[in-house]
Amino acid sequence: MFLTNQDVIELTAWRRKLHAMPEVSGEEVATAAEVQGFLADTKPDRVVTGLGGTGVAVVYDSGLAGPTVLFRAELDALPIEEVGTPDYRSKIPGKGHMCGHDGHMTMLAALGRQFGREKPKRGRVILMFQPAEETGAGAAAVIADEKFRDLVPDYSFSLHNMPGLPLGRVWLKQGIVNCASRGLKVVLTGRTAHASMPETGISPVPAVAALMPALTALSEGSIETGDMLLATVTHASVGEPAFGIAPGRAEVWVTLRTMTDGQMEALMARAETLVRKIAAADGLEYAMDYHDIFGQCENDAQATELLRAAMETEGVPHDAGETMRGSEDFGRFATVSKSAMFFLGAGENMPNLHNPNYDFPDDLIPIGTKIFMRVARDILG
Question: What is the pTM of this model?
Fold first, then answer.
C-alpha cells in the first residue's frame, strides 16, 4: 500500500525534472511524452494519447468486471517567470510550475508504480494526465474526445495542493468546492481622429471610464451566504501609445465569478446589458466574447464519503474547509461520473499558488498517493 524509500527518492527526482521543463496550456507535448516514458516500465494495460490535445490516459485493468476509477492530474504550467532559486528551477524563460501540477502528476505516477506491481482486484484504474487546466479548456476537450468514450469512469477523483493550510492537512467537503468563472473581453470601436481635432472622431474613453466601475459594482453577496457575484476588471487599453491620435478603439477585460453555473448566466446577462447600454450612449460599436471558461466544481456525496473514509483509514487529518473562490475545470468530470476533489495543505508559510517563487513541497507526494491508493483499493480491492 505504501511507497518504498527508493520510490520516494525517484519520484521526487522526477517531480523536480518536471518542474524544470514547464509547458503552458495546449503545449504540453514534452511533458506528455515524459509521463509515458516514466510509466512505461509499470506495464500498463493501455495508454491513450492525444486526449483533448496532449492528454494521456494510463490504464491498469484487472480484466474482471467492476467499476472504472479515474484519477486526474494536470499537465500544464503557467506563463510566469520563476524567481525562486532551486537547483531544478525552470529552464524555460517566462514559464514555470507555479501551481504545483508537477507534484500532482508525480502522485499519479506513484499510483502507476503501485498498480504496476499489483493490479486492482476488479474493474480498472485510469490515470488521467489532463492538458490545459489553467485555461479551463482541457477537461472539456478530453471528455469531448472520441477516444474518451472507452474510458468513461464511474468515479473520478482529484486533488489540489493548498498553501496556507498546514502541511498534510486536508479540506474536503460535499457540494460546491470551486466557483464558476469566465473572462469577458469587451471591444469598443468608435473613430480615431487627430489629437488637435478630437471632435471629428468618436472616442471610447468616456465609455471605458464609465464601464469599469459599473462592471465592478456588479459584485455582491459572499461565499458564506452562497450568493457571491464577483466582477474584477483585469485589463484595459485605449487607443495607440501616441500623442497625436485621439483614440477610436478600446478593450476592457473583466473576470466574472459566481458560486454556481446558474448564477453565472445571470451575471453574464447583467454585464452584457451594461456594455450595450454604455456603448450605445456614446455611439460606439461593441463586441463581446468569453475566454477561460470554468463551470462550478461540485463534489458528489458518495465520492466525497469514499475520500473521507480513505483519510480516516490512513490517519490523514481533515475537515470540511470552505468553498474556494478560484476555479477548477475538474468539475467537468461530474458530467460523466461521480466525482470529488480535495485540497491538500502545502504549509502555512508557503508562497501562494501562481506566485513566481512557489515550489511544490515534495513531502506531499506520499500523502496524496496513499489517499488515492486507499480509495482505489476500497472501491476495487
Answer: 0.94
